[in-house]
Design a protein that fits this description.
about 210 residues; alpha/beta; Rossmann fold; 8-stranded mixed β-sheet; 5 helices; globular
Length: about 210
């Protein structure tokens, strides 16, 4: 399979790149700074570009079967500003499958089910800015033609790969407190072969 990974130099994105290469796929990454990619692999294509540039997105999507976006908020609006370009380019090329890394803040609240977690007392985050960015992306994907899945981890330490975790559609697993980067990446990567969570948010935790 030909996979485009956005955010491939980040914690989760970098781990997804490794899993995809280990599984025998061809991986393309679009990065602003190619030097940040520490990997060298015959099935890895590194493209220099910017997710905010529509032409770069179109170029990166050439021959691609599925997109995995592990872009994070980084205190900017890159996440919400890049998604319209990504959606439009994917729809134009009839590439429908996208898996993105979100945040548990955009899952439904168990305390106030009509609210998202970040909008309710369930959230312990002092700032809602990152969740608001992910919320914008969620709304865009809902309105698109794409077959999307948003993987929504809670507290995300680097940690070890455990290989056992709980996932629930639209909610955080009850009592879920954390999930490691490797396990989040493993689950997100596994969704390229799964249709269990099409057009759904997925809460993930131990």
């Amino acid at each position: 399979m030909n996979i485009l990974i956005l955010g491939g130099t980040g914690r989760v994105g970098g781990q997804i790149v490794t899993y995809a290469l280990d599984d025998g796929h061809h991986v393309t990454v679009l990065v602003r700074t190619p030097e940040k990619m520490q990997l060298n692999h015959e099935n890895l294509t590194i493209l220099q570009g910017n997710v905010l540039n529509k032409d770069d997105i179109v170029r990166a999507l050439h021959g691609i079967d599925v997109v995995i976006s592990a872009l994070n908020t980084d205190g900017t609006t890159t996440l919400s500003k890049s998604m319209p370009c990504i959606i439009e380019a994917m729809e134009n090329k009839d590439i429908l499958r996208i898996i993105t890394i979100g945040t548990a803040g955009i899952l439904q609240s168990r305390i106030s089910p009509h609210l998202l977690r970040y909008q309710s007392s369930e959230s312990k985050q002092k700032s809602a800015r990152a969740a608001e960015e992910h919320h914008k992306v969620y709304n865009m994907l809902k309105q698109s033609k794409l077959d999307w899945t948003i993987v929504c981890p809670t507290y995300l330490p680097d940690g070890e790969r455990v290989g056992k975790y709980r996932t629930v559609s639209h909610f955080l697993p009850e009592g879920g407190i954390k999930i490691s980067v490797p396990d989040t990446a493993e689950f997100a990567f596994s969704q390229i072969k799964s249709s269990d969570y099409i057009k759904m948010r997925v809460g993930i935790a131990y």
